[in-house]
Amino acid sequence: VLFLLKLLNFYFLYTLIGCKITIRCMQSSWIMDGLKECVDVHFDVEKRRVLGKLESCIDNSKKGSLDEPIVDLIHNINKQHDFVTTSSCSGRCAVFCETSEVAKKKTGVWLLASHEPTSFEEVWESLLSDALKNSVGPVMFKFEPVILHIQCRSLFQARDLLKTALDAGMRNSGIVLGKKFMVAIRTTLRLEAPLAYDGKVVVKEEYVQNLVKQSNEMFALNISRINKLSQALATFFALDGDKERKSEEKRSEKQRKKEEGLKRQKTVQEQRRKAREAKAVAMEMEKNCCNDNNQENNNSTEITSTEDS
Description:
By secondary structure, the protein is an alpha+beta fold.
């Protein structure tokens, strides 16, 4: 008996799990179908604000302008109806240190920041600056790759944009969900190494030369990935435009068919109304004719009765 009870429990548990899996699969398809309904209603306002800043040359970055390697890419993105870039960097080589005044706030000073391949002399000269003497903790040499933050009108478009970026080799990309639908496009190229600690250089010149060499090689890879991303996004935007155009054509066709259907329905209703009116008139005429015939028959009967009398 206990064995049978355990077997029945196992059967019901297995059935319940199967039902839950089926429901999850159905829900996932419903969710994917519902992505198109997730739209940022404030997107147009935000896009006008961002483009207004770009036209007025208002840039919050230290450089104060767009990076040359990605200018065409950013303009191409911002030309699209449903996308806009909110921040960007084409990649940079930097030397960063924390100073004693702001160490507790986790901020510091950029001893060097270059968006182009740099030289050993530039890096080594940054280590001889006065700011290094006041630094606290490690002074880091960094190479950071291209990064783009693109705001999308809908979650469905954000998903498609992310897939395009991942296919183009931007493997560190993702979607940020909140009041906005933001896609962060990043690659995995990265280099970070300590050069000094508490105001003292702790490496030799040969070490710094090797870091600079690796950084410049990463710059070349970074540019090639930017070009690949530009081509992928151009194709994506062209296909997205075709999808939008086809969707608009479908909506127009649906509206046309709806109007034609309503027109036919109105015509049929009008024909039926006229047929009912004609039938009612015919029935009224037939009724009047019957009344007249009955009246004549009654009159004839009265005349015959009078003559018989």
